[in-house]
Amino acid sequence: MIKLYLYPALYGLADNNPYGLKVWHFFKVNKIEHEIIYTVDTSNAPRNQLPYIEDDGKKIGDSFDIINYVINKYKLPHYIRYSDILIERTLDHLYWAISYSRWGDPDNYSKFSKHFHEATGLEYSVISNIRDYNIEKFKYQGIGREDKDRIYRQVSHDINALCMAITGKKYMSGDKYNAIDSS
Prior knowledge:
Layout: E1 2-6, H1 18-29, E2 34-38, E3 52-55, E4 58-61, H2 63-73, H3 82-104, H4 106-120, H5 124-141, H6 148-166
Parallel strand pairs: 1-2
Antiparallel strand pairs: 1-3, 3-4
Helix pairs in contact: 3-4, 3-5, 3-6
């Protein structure tokens, strides 16, 4: 059975990280038998990040690679359209904004850190170190060099574009489920 390593559940979601939710949802929709292991320890993870899976002695990290591995292993249908790739890349951009809103936005961090502490049991000093690490990542990625208002304006544009792309469709790609729907 596949072991799926996720960050702890938070806010009623199976994982408090969008990439973990993406994999979890993909597994659920495709009825992939798996065991969830909640952790904040990324030291055994490929690429030192979550989510990742262990299957048949292999460790696979990165939501894109995990989903493609499962598609190939179980010979699941996977329809790729250029519009799906554009939607997925837009959602990937939103990940950084979501992460920033939790760890980098000083107006939200105190509330988030309290909820994260309650969900994980981690000491606030450890959570503060995680925040420092994330703020450093934001700088390297680029979002950490923007001011808060600009970040949220860009996110608003991304969300509006996604809404226009999926309005009136049962699934993002049309009438059939596709891996993009787990994004």
